[in-house]
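S.,

Sequence below, as promised.
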Amino acid sequence: MKKAISIWSFSNKSVIKAMDLAKKAGFDGIELALNETGETSLDSSEQELLVIKNHAKAIDLKIHSVATGLYWTYSMTSNDKNERDKAIAIAKAQITLAKTLGADSVLIVPGAVGVDFVDGREPIQYDIAYKRALTAIKELTPIAELFKVNIGIENVWNKFLTSPLEMRNFIDEIDSPYVGAYFDVGNVLINGYPEHWINILGKRIVKVHFKDYLRSAGGLSGFVDLLAGDVNWPTVMKAFNDIGYDGWATAEMLPPYTHHADQLIYNTYGSMSSIIDNK
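The prediction came back faster than expected:
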């Protein structure tokens, strides 16, 4: 596997400085994010983005994927059609951004049934959410195919697509080589086993997030440093090996430390190396 790290793992750094630190720590790639404002935003010019792309190329660091946190504000399954349209527009902008930066995938959250950690987020009836999410991803699929950018649907805490069987069936209903799963190892620990998801999703997995989770802590506070939680990494790596996955593994460390934040990047690379290289 190739080792990468999410831009969200860095504390108060510009994209350029974050990329420099990632490279210095040993990473081969980075996942950037589309924001409403800032360096990689809905308002960024192509010239501004090419500065980032060219710097990554100059230091031999691959921008392999583009995520976004905007789907917690704008949901593809909302009861508000204007909000659903905004979420789809964000996804289109995300695909365009990925193409400009030379990334081959985007991470998409296809809506939610409910989100406990977002105040005021209205619950959506499950079957309605499923239909709306399916419609949205089907609308985005031709654009992904045109730009040759993979849509990776992530398993997140959205009370939606909560089992590997359902995620598999959802992806199969789209029926496109450019739509698959962006599998997050740590997100599964609250109610399942990542090795089960890996074996069931198989070749549908297009990208992977590495996180660890401590069940006894519970809630968002359960996310801990790699190797400090309950993920059975040898079993997980065996499952990846069994399905033949050898693509990008991106560490997503949330939230970053306030003190000695740079050390988190080095520690994470060391843990990933132990997990991947000594499997």
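Strands lie at 2-6, 29-34, 62-68, 105-108, 150-154, 179-184, 205-210, 212-213, 223-224, 248-251.

Coffee later?
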